[in-house]
């Protein structure tokens, strides 16, 4: 991030409210590395990273353990229940491992079905978010990201509605096709989040190509396999959803939560929302820092004067081309 943003973050997180209660970031399904969007505020934050597939999680410990104020790596499968033992399916591709069994019957129609092949099926010890919160003496979460391969919604709901209402950012990666048996699909996430005062900041649709692996293996040589994807349309398979808390006037949000809302919105490049949060914060908590935050957000939405000619020419050429 820019030096100006770094300076503002230093000012924000130097305040007493953050010395005693730093931001709490949760990454469920942190295979390979902790969520990249956390990096701008890592040194100010407590991060809890979950992943049961330690084929990849060891990288998190060695790579990110010095970046955070505190980093807790939980090498345990996460469940919404109190069960101590739960099935776990280790797949060929580690990032697809899940507590749910891959839906091989449905997946056989898609070109990447092989990544869901089960290498090992075992019963392992599970934990839940309530237990972890109690063990770490953490009372709430501020940014909750989950990519649990089919169980995002049930894990999120297990936090309880009281805590959910105070979360600033929530990220999910629900399915659109049946990749796992009994998985939480995107329509369920959308329906559940309508209960709360969150708005969708971003949605990225990812997917596979509708081609049975049999055809790929028997009708294409190795060179053709490299290029066939250019000729075949990708279909939606799952989506990356980002929600931001609207920080309703009717609800009692603290000064800490207003600051975090501005910080998170700025990281997510939602400068219009950040501007509104800063202006409302300035009214609710007479503090000159909210004025600085509002000024920064406003500037981020304006084109620098020296770039105006470039954008004017670009706009003119675009209109001319369309006509």
What's the helix and strand layout?
Layout: H1 3-13, H2 16-20, E1 24-28, E2 46-50, H3 54-64, E3 70-74, E4 77-78, E5 85-91, H4 104-107, E6 118-127, H5 129-136, E7 143-146, H6 152-157, H7 161-164, E8 169-172, H8 186-193, E9 198-209, H9 213-219, H10 222-231, E10 234-245, H11 255-267, H12 271-284, H13 288-300, H14 308-322
Parallel strand pairs: 1-2, 1-7, 2-3, 4-6, 7-8
Antiparallel strand pairs: 5-6, 8-10, 9-10
Helix pairs in contact: 1-13, 11-12, 12-13
Low-confidence stretches: none
General shape:
globular
First-last Cα distance: 39 Å
Q: Beta-strand percentage? A: 15-25%
How many separate helices?
14
Helix content: 25-40%
Task: Note the main sheet.
Answer: 7 strands, mixed
Widest sheet, order of strands: 3-2-1-7-8-10-9
Describe this structure in words.
- With 323 residues, the chain is α/β, with parallel strands linked by helices.
- The protein is built from 14 helices and ten strands.
- It has a seven-stranded mixed β-sheet, with helices on both faces. It has a three-stranded mixed β-sheet with strand order 4-6-5.
- The longest helix is centred in the C-terminal third of the chain and has 15 residues, at 308-322.
- The chain starts with a helix and ends with a helix.
